[in-house]
């Protein structure tokens, strides 16, 4: 009996010793202190908040990159690098570690006055094979007319080449140019356009202004669009952000009136062919055949919402004049949470990375903000720490 006890004790000690050796030297061993699995090769931490095995051990907020000028939109390349548009007409390359490449990927001849310039950027769903990149930008037609267009480029040797215009002559102005471009889960390209400071155009289904457009990757109207045109929805003032939730539902952020009647910024649930009311109704006003927003800022209050992103059951959008990050849940999108109010200034772009972090750009050098050291920045925000 005593021999059995001695052998059992020896066995237990040996097993513990082996575990300790493995724990200290080999990857993928459990960290019993916090109940996580840690791979010492990759730094990946698996927790209940990180079921996808992605690194969640980031601080609440960190500066990912800096010294940009009015960064408007982000597209993530397959290797983790970022393409970033600057409103003055430059496309910049930011390495996956955050270093800003000094030489622009492209310099686009834009008309940059007030809100106009180089805006949205997105990759083709089959980018790995065709290397197509899409840009939305403001330009000046012969005679001085301000217009917007969407062009397709090819990404070769860290340059954008071979421009091909796919949607042209979108009405433009110094303000209210829209500008977001993203491919939806249906494989079609969605484009947000502003009313170009002519509100009546938003209700005109023959105009490209004040709309969300849906087109093929070559710019043709997508099959199933209403009116047999490029229009997907209409009655928009200045839509700045679009995203889709896990069910494929399209959501949009939109600027309400400014000046004396400022406020009534909107979060909208977008449906095919629907009329979202501008300029006939605003805020929670109702009219037959028109859609009121899911959530709005109220009269006299403004978010000036820019882009919007979906992640893990939440919609996140950022505010320019509101200078904050906002969050709502899909289940209850009428409850608004606010973060970082006035901490980082004007915020314009928000994009969810493959690491499940939120990448947010400041816009403090756009003539309406107060630049700080290092502006403009790309902030990396850990949503699990909000």
How many strands, what sense, and barrel or not for the largest sheet?
A: 4 strands, antiparallel
CATH top level label of the largest domain: Mainly Beta
Shape summary: globular
Bin the helical content: under 10%
Total helices: the number is: 2
Radius of gyration: 24 Å
Main sheet: which strands, in order across? 4-27-26-25
Question: Which terms would index this structure?
Answer:
single chain, 386 residues, mainly beta, Neuraminidase, 2 domains, four-stranded antiparallel sheet, 27 strands, 36% strand, globular
Sum this structure up briefly.
The chain is 7% helix and 36% strand.
Could you please describe the fold and organization of this structure?
The termini are far apart. This protein has 2 helices and 27 strands. It has helices spanning 2-25, 127-130, and strands spanning 29-31, 36-38, 45-46, 61-65, 71-76, 82-86, 90-94, 106-107, 118-123, 132-140, 146-156, 159-171, 181-183, 189-192, 211-215, 231-234, 239-244, 250-254, 266-270, 295-296, 305-311, 314-319, 325-329, 337-339, 347-352, 358-362, 378-381. The chain has 2 domains: 1-57, no CATH class; 58-385, Neuraminidase (6 Propeller). This is Quinoprotein glucose dehydrogenase. Keywords: Membrane, Transmembrane, Transmembrane helix. The chain crosses the membrane at residues 5-26. Pfam families: GSDH.
How do the strands and helices of this protein lay out in sequence?
Elements: H1 2-25, E1 29-31, E2 36-38, E3 45-46, E4 61-65, E5 71-76, E6 82-86, E7 90-94, E8 106-107, E9 118-123, H2 127-130, E10 132-140, E11 146-156, E12 159-171, E13 181-183, E14 189-192, E15 211-215, E16 231-234, E17 239-244, E18 250-254, E19 266-270, E20 295-296, E21 305-311, E22 314-319, E23 325-329, E24 337-339, E25 347-352, E26 358-362, E27 378-381
Antiparallel strand pairs: 1-2, 2-3, 4-27, 5-6, 6-7, 7-8, 9-10, 10-11, 11-12, 13-14, 14-15, 15-16, 17-18, 18-19, 19-20, 21-22, 22-23, 23-24, 25-26, 26-27
